[in-house]
Amino acid sequence: MRSIRIHAFALVLWTLMFSFALTTSIRAQEKEKPKPGTTVDAWRQALPPEAEAQKQAEEMTEGTTPPSNDETQKSLLSLEKRWMDSLLVGDADSLMEIISSDFTFANPRVIEVMDRAKYLEHSLRDLKLTSYEFDKTTVRLFGRTAIVSGLLKQKATIKGEDWGGNYLFTDVWIRRDGNWRIVSRHESALRNKSNERIRQQ
Questions:
Q1: Distance (Å, whole) CA 76 – CA 182
Q2: Averaged pLDDT, 37-53
């Protein structure tokens, strides 16, 4: 009987010692884990590795100092001018560089909303733009998205028909891979003598 008690006591003692050693080991491992200093750090740790790698690549592409709002607005207005200049001379390479693959174009004189392919065909084959002028243009920035709107005065023909006149336009730009791309343009013709003649044809 005494031998059984000794063995039982030894078993209980060994169990207590094992539990203590296991608890000590777990606490030591928890102390070695780095704790996130901010909410952003915690969010990054929760992201898959490829997402963090993509974010780092974007930061490296764009640089550590983002352009100011004034610089961005000037850059967008310059792109608007480059777009129209490309239409003047029929520069397909510049148009394809500026216009996003998911671009759409809406105008009251076209039957349906055009995608990029139809717009390029329309612009390079049918459009004869002879002059243009921007007026009352505004640029609004929303992170990687920008909206440019204003008045477009143009002299142009489409398959011999007069497309000149004044148009209110709204352009949507998206910043991708460090570059601005146009994704949408919507035009509305203003009522004036030139546009009234167009409607009567």
A1: 10
A2: 43
Closest CA to 109 of 133, 126, 92, 124: 126
- What are the counts of helices (DSSP H) followed by strands (DSSP E) for the chain? 7, 7
Greatest extent of the chain over all pairs of C-alpha atoms, in Å: 118
- Strands 114-115 and 99-106 turn out to be antiparallel
Distance between CA 30 and CA 157 in Å, rounded?
A: 73
Which amino acid is it at 87?
Answer: L
pLDDT tens, position by position, 62-94: 555 667 888 999 999 999 999 999 999 999 999
- Cβ atoms of 142 and 157 closer than 8 Å: no
Instruction: Indicate the domain borders of the chain.
Output: 2-62, 69-200
Q: For the chain, how far is it from start to end, CA to CA, in angstroms?
A: 117
Helix or strand (DSSP H, E) at 22: helix 2-32
Identify the CATH class of 69-200: alpha beta
* E strands present in the chain: 99-106, 114-115, 127-142, 145-158, 161-162, 165-176, 179-189
